[in-house]
Write a structure and sequence with these properties.
The chain is of the alpha/beta class and 290 residues long. It has helices at residues 57-65, 92-106, 122-133, 156-165, 187-195, 205-215, 242-251, 275-287; strands at 2-5, 14-22, 28-35, 41-46, 68-73, 115-120, 140-144, 173-174, 203-204, 229-234, 257-262.
Length: 290
Amino acid sequence: AGAGMTAGGGDILMEARIGQFSGRDGTKLYYEQWNPPEPKAGIVFVHGVGDHCGRYGPFTQYFLKRAYRVCLYDQRGHGKSEGKRSHVDDFESLYHDLEDYVKFCRKGSSENLPWFIVGHSLGGQIVINFLSRFPDVFRAAVASSSNIEIALAIPGWVEKMSRKMVGVLPTMRLQGFIRPGMLSHDPKVVAAYKKDPLVSSNITIKIGVEILKNLEQIYSLCTKIKTPLLMIHGSADKVCSPEGTKRFYRELILAQKEMKIYEGMYHELFNEIKKEEVFHDVEHWFEKHF
């Protein structure tokens, strides 16, 4: 932890806390908390599969400048956190980690501070599960490029083989189906992703099967979400299908809901060429729910 650090190469003075917290099973998870001098609200950010929180500097920077406290963490088996790479024993452990991190973030912050949550990709899938269980924790939420329906062309035999083998060889690795060029139109983002040692391009069959099993019942959560929810997606996303977001949104029984589909944008809206527009829309959504 250090005072006067800057996020994402910017120039704001604030306090940064960087360290580890323990999940309920003792797994040490890496976190970053960026604190402006007088925060008006807090944001918890949840990244996707094979990803890590260090790739979201521009997002952090944007909201810090606007007096939001930004709290990010690396999911288990990801980035600088402990655990077998891109692996989980069960899907529940992913939202238990989120639950533990949310409690950790709120410790010592003012009771009145409004909190928001943003989940990207698998992070969006986890946030949807979290909100269906904990309706009152956040003022409002954002599900970005959520993994509700998979757009990747995964051969049928891979899925069949994975389901068959998962009991025998849960940590067997599948070559990743995500090509870096699918993530963003920004060549700098794609080049950095390819070189990033903390990015994991393949996953274990266990995490793959756990994600698929959770998706089998995800539409049943539409009726359980009470937190105001903004759903955003790029129309040209080849990783997670925008159709999943559209269907989930249609089935949400929620008065305070909004959806925006960004024409032509790829999977990583927060790392896209027009990311400032996305940040602005997210900020506008938060401002409505103070």
